């Protein structure tokens, strides 16, 4: 199988990049073909601006969705973006490796999403009508592929537990896992999260690396997080609100998990 690993840490000797190396080594040992996009090493441009749309007339306002759609349709997106899009289409699985900074991904990785996820590629896909609201949330360009996060966090695991001060890790990662990954079609696997990252000892790293190797060996067999599919009948269209008879006791992120599907639990 083919895997793309996108990593986001400025220090080549960081834990994030060490874990990336472990993942790549195991995947290649298992016979997979792996490509790596190291965003910092590549000097990735993270901010969306007019230079992303070379064909946009100088006198025309920059409306990003419209400009993105026009550039994607006419094949005038910049070379760095089209190369990443081609690699996403090539890959059977995507792994995003990054430190949790201010409760989210680093800006450079968000910028990769902002620029690569063009209108017509990752969003704005499919017809919008009375029975469907586009091909998204379980459908779309990247459907049939798998994705997962490899995340390092400075806090203790209890800090990110159900009653932890930082909020549950699954809630913090929901915008990435459900929005960035499930939205364009990926089946999203439970994340691999390393807590107390700054204090990880040599023996702790060895145990963590072995855990990551185990996850890589099961990349294509682990059950995905059971997010509800948008067009599967659970949501009213066009309001996109969950049907009132489904999980009536739940609101927020948890309501969008289909507990009738096999549960994989949260992060290891």
From TrEMBL:
SUPFAM superfamilies: Flavoproteins (SSF52218). Its EC number is 1.-.-.-, 1.6.99.-. It comes from the Bacteria. GO terms for molecular function: oxidoreductase activity. It is an enzyme of class 1 (oxidoreductase). Keywords: Oxidoreductase. Residues 1-213 form the Flavodoxin-like fold domain. Belongs to the NAD(P)H dehydrogenase (quinone) family. This is NAD(P)H-dependent oxidoreductase.
């Amino acid at each position: 199988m083919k895997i793309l690993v996108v990593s986001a840490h400025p220090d080549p000797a960081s834990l994030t990049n060490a874990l990336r190396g472990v993942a790549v080594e195991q995947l290649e040992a298992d016979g997979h073909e792996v490509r790596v996009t190291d965003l910092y090493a590549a000097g990735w441009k993270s901010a969306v601006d007019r230079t992303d749309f070379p064909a946009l007339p100088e006198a025309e306002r920059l409306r990003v969705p419209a400009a993105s759609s026009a550039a994607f349709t006419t094949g005038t997106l910049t070379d760095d973006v089209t190369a990443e899009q081609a690699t996403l289409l090539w890959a059977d699985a995507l792994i995003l490796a990054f430190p949790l900074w201010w409760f989210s991904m680093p800006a450079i990785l968000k910028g990769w999403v902002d620029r690569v996820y063009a209108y017509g590629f990752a969003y704005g896909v499919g017809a919008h009508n009375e029975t469907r609201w586009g091909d998204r949330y379980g459908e779309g360009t990247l459907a049939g592929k798998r994705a997962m996060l490899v995340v390092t966090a400075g806090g203790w695991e209890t800090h990110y537990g159900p009653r932890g001060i930082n909020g549950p890790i699954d809630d913090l990662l929901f915008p990435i896992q459900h929005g960035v990954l499930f939205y364009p079609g990926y089946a999203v696997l439970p994340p691999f999260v390393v807590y107390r990252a700054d204090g990880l000892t040599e023996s702790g790293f060895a145990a963590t690396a072995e855990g990551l190797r185990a996850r890589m060996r099961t990349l294509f067999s682990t059950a995905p997080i059971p997010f509800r599919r948008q067009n599967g009948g659970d949501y009213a269209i066009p309001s996109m609100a969950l049907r009132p008879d489904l999980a009536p006791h739940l609101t927020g992120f948890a309501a969008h998990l289909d507990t009738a599907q096999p549960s994989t639990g949260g992060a290891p």
